[in-house]
Amino acid sequence: MRIAIAGAGIAGAYVAHLLGEKGIEPELFDSMEHDTTCGYRSCGWGAPRAIGSYLARAGLNFEDYLLEPMSSMTFDGLVARTPLCSIDKPHLLRDLSSGLPVHRDPLGTKKADSFDVIIDATGINRAFLPPCRSDLVLPTVQQRVKVESRGSTHLGAGVYGNRIPGLGYLWIFPLGHEQYHFGVGGIRLDRHESIIEQFYEENARRYSFTPICSCRGVVRVASPYHSMPLHASRLREDGTPQQIIGVGEAIGTVAPFTGEGIIYSLECAQLLSDSWPDVEQYAASVLARFHWMRKERETLDYLLSIGKESGPRLRDRWRLYQNARRSGITLSLIEAFRRMGGLSRWVENP
Ligand SMILES: Cc1cc2nc3c(=O)[nH]c(=O)nc-3n(C[C@H](O)[C@H](O)[C@H](O)COP(=O)(O)OP(=O)(O)OC[C@H]3O[C@@H](n4cnc5c(N)ncnc54)[C@H](O)[C@@H]3O)c2cc1C
Q1: Span 42-95, pLDDT tens digits
Q2: Which residues line ligand 1 (CB under 6 A)?
Q3: Number of domains observed in the structure of the chain
Q4: Interaxial angle between packed helices 333-341 and 314-326, expressed in degrees from 0 to 180 and rounded to the nearest 10
Q5: Are strands 3-6 and 27-29 parallel, antiparallel or unpaired?
Q6: Which of 219, 242, 276 is a domain's end point?
Q7: Relative to the CA of 250, which ligand 1 atom is closest?
Q8: pLDDT tens by residue, 133-146
Q9: Are 266 and 10 in contact (CB under 8 A)?
Q10: Model-level pTM?
Q11: Within this chain, do residues 11 and 157 fall inside the same structural domain, yes or no?
Q12: Same-domain status, 211 and 267
């Protein structure tokens, strides 16, 4: 059986490793044509330390990719402890795919016909699976910036939802050597850049900001449930069937509230490898493991559909609390409920 993996991002490269452990040797395809200065897909590079156990399975050491710990992070003025770090994602992706047979071309439909199974790990492109049953994407703009303090204060990691006039947030992730990722993600937002510019202006007395590069990107925050089908079959030109199986962001394994997809792509790849070759079991385990993403998506749909007068419901606040707990962020229940109260202010009428 010939297996191709389309996409050598986190999900594709990791699943190639795991299948390799089982003696299965898929071929990986990725042209890596990204319109970014770093040459990789736009990403904040924030990830919890828990990715270390996944990396260890691929023979990699988390500490080799650690740029800056974000053990203390400001959430709209509230400082909380987190297990998050910024990681050198380009370095990690290079190491994950080193030793694997990667074709530096996109996998086109014609070439794909020579494979019996295609693993669609093409992220937001979802190049092989049929469209999601109900997609939802978060448009983003991110800048890499050099930040120099004009005094003794150090700019810490932060996430600011209250700066976005809608659903979304601004993130500030330190990358070490005075460099930071500043990003804005917002649904139905059309002035991402000006929100970042406003932050620079407001803080110009304390810091100087020198942008190094800027990129646009989109994150699928649909949830796996709303990204079904998670696998499909199609007929090749010669009339024989071909199986297509999605993994990672292609099937929506991204936290809908936060756009966090690195750890969940790794987890999804592991589910695929553990269930291989039973795709029905794989799909069932993805839906079960990431059921909470369906709930978060339901909150987003609710908040996007209501007017300014109504606010989040008790269940939406509870989901925010659970989201913080899942990410290891020490936020008290009361604080989580209060923060979510702020969401009613963020919601714009469509
Ligand atoms: C601005 C931004 C900031 C983010 N910040 C964070 C963050 O801080 N932390 C976090 O956890 N997540 C973050 N995310 C989300 C995270 O980057 C993704 O969810 C995660 O990288 C998904 O991994 P993946 O392997 O599924 O897909 P991708 O990383 O998108 O990889 C897909 C690969 O498929 C390739 N490809 C596409 N089409 C084809 C084709 N036809 N043939 C072959 N290859 C193809 C692409 O070149 C790409 O390399 C962010 C996303 C954005 C846009």
Answers
A1: 999 999 999 999 999 999 999 999 999 999 998 887 888 899 999 999 999 999
A2: 6-12, 29-30, 32, 41-47, 106-107, 121-125, 127, 140, 142, 183, 217, 219, 248-250, 254, 259-262, 265
A3: 3
A4: 120
A5: parallel
A6: 219
A7: 26
A8: 999 999 999 999 99
A9: yes
A10: 0.94
A11: no
A12: no
